[in-house]
Write a structure and sequence with these properties.
Helices cover 34% and strands 27% of the residues. It is of the alpha/beta class. Helix 4 (121-134) crosses helix 5 (150-163).
Length: 500
Amino acid sequence: MITGSPADKCLLEMRGISKSFVGVQALKNVSFNLRRGEVHVLIGENGAGKSTLIKALGGAHLPDTGEILLDGQPVRISSPTASQHLGISIIYQEFNLIPELSVCENIFLGREKTRNGFIDAAEEHRLSLQLFKRIGITVDPSKRCSELTVAQQQTVEIAKALSVNAKIIVMDEPSAALSQKEVDHLFKIIRDLKAQGMGIVYISHRLDEIFQIGDRITVLRDGQLVGTQDVKATSRERLIEMMVGRPLEMEFPEHKSRPGKERLRVQNLCRGKAVRNVSFSVRAGEILAFAGLVGAGRTETMRLIFGADQPDSGQIFVDGVEVRMRGPRDAIRNRICLLTEDRKNQGLVLIHSVQENFGLPNLDRYVRGRLLDHKREYSEFAGYVESLKIRIANQDQMAMTLSGGNQQKVVLSKWLATNADIFIFDEPTRGIDVGAKYEIYLLMHKLADEGKAIVMISSELPEILGMSDRIIVMHEGCIKKEISDVANARQEDILSAAIT
């Protein structure tokens, strides 16, 4: 185990940090340090304390006990502004940008450059170009942030951090919504920042990328420090064991597929250039995986099947009968459900309770006349809370307060209650820790054993290979390849089809 560098080499030290909320010990005597020119990865299951530790560094939470040192000197970080003044910038997974403002307006928001009492737009534009040049990218500073890709928005956040002369940058799940090409470019930026002597705290659930970009890894579990390892001296299996507190013999559970009758068939589905003559079928008891780069048309295809968008042409058959999906309600009536890739914005109403979210697609069963049968809704949801092991304080808890894994389980519970026969999982484990992933994999296998047909979209090739019975690879709206012999398929086979 690596205990950390001596104090005189540390850019940041957090010693004995503890923080409790009402009835919850979020952090207990956690220590963490960061060196100059280092990427220190912070990992742990959802609820392990990562966010609380970072919020203590960012001034959003005041620790109950412990101390924070910068360059060996104790500091008190009482607010996000104080943290920023000390050279600490935090880039959260949900970007803190105002969509309708320009790039340079977002970068200098609250710190506008002025001349004679007026905002000096030309100076902000010039400085923005300098910042982007420093990280080796080209972005138009006058463009509105709403017009940027996710990857471009992320670089704006990085430029914003550099604009306040940050010495420490925290990146929370920075690769979650990026394509592999965009991730490669992000890593180049991070390596350049390292070379400039910056300290990077990198939070991720993607274990593969940790070994590409990290120097050291600190693992938290249940609010406590498990240990810190040098990347070169550890393994994926060791990290998983540290995270979950027990050996995890296999990342993907074993399963024997028993495909039955055809449940869903799609013929020549088209919508503009996004979906072009897509045809496929999936049987009961089968897991059909869709692979491809971001923008390949996978999500767009599933939205057509679910009725969220309307096709230009094509046919959809459920149990051999042609159906027309004029909207999601028709899909639900045909016992199709869609777990969207963006659970926060599309899968949940975050400001509503978990029970209300559970009940939304099931109102037809819970409404009696003009009244909602709250007792029945409560009772049925309680059953799923127990069977899916959803960690909530009570059923009135706001969905926004749950961890990513528990949010995904709430989404799962509401669709399970519809008794659907066809499940479409779009990035089912994005942003979810390895322990929760395993539980979702087991649930998918259970659904398949019950005769459900499952379509899964994933950007993680190990997940595609580990979970599917067949694989369809899409590129620029078209199906490029179908792989039936998954046991002998390689990641290179999938990637090759996805990029050509």
